[in-house]
Predict the structure.
Amino acid sequence: MIFFKKNSVIYLVAIVFAMVAVGCESNFKEIQKDNFSDFIPSSDADEVNLKYTDSGRITGILISKKMLDYAVVDFPFTEFPKGIHVTLYDKNAKKTVVTSNYAVTYKQTGIIDLQGKVKIVSEDGQILETQQLYYDQNNAWFFTERKFKFTSPKGVSNGQGIDFSKDFKVINSQRLTGEVDSAD
């Protein structure tokens, strides 16, 4: 009889524990659902073709298959989950093309995060390829700590870690390897 009471107590504790666990899991899923429903894009666009202008002159064209704008979250951002193709024009109408498989731009900081087969091609033959690259819009500055390949008319170099100005006039690279002709 003592054996029966001891097992009954164990079974009773196991049943109560199971009920509490199921109740907590159900409550946890509701909390997750509530939080998730607040994190939806405020706008959603397909086949985006945006033109940026300055004093009537086109300075850039952004093309993307999908754009999600999260303008009403605490840290607003715009996401391009299917990648971007951006053509930038300088004051002399020289163009630079930037492509990546994914991009997100953070409104408060002005940082753009480019990811997946990032490639920048300038009109004068300079090409930078990497897997992730950040662009600081406020300072017109690119940077990454990832491996990169830089091709120019002077040669090809590889490295890990690079930062440079939007026009490629100032380039700082780290852990650099390759052959570059230094003759002008």
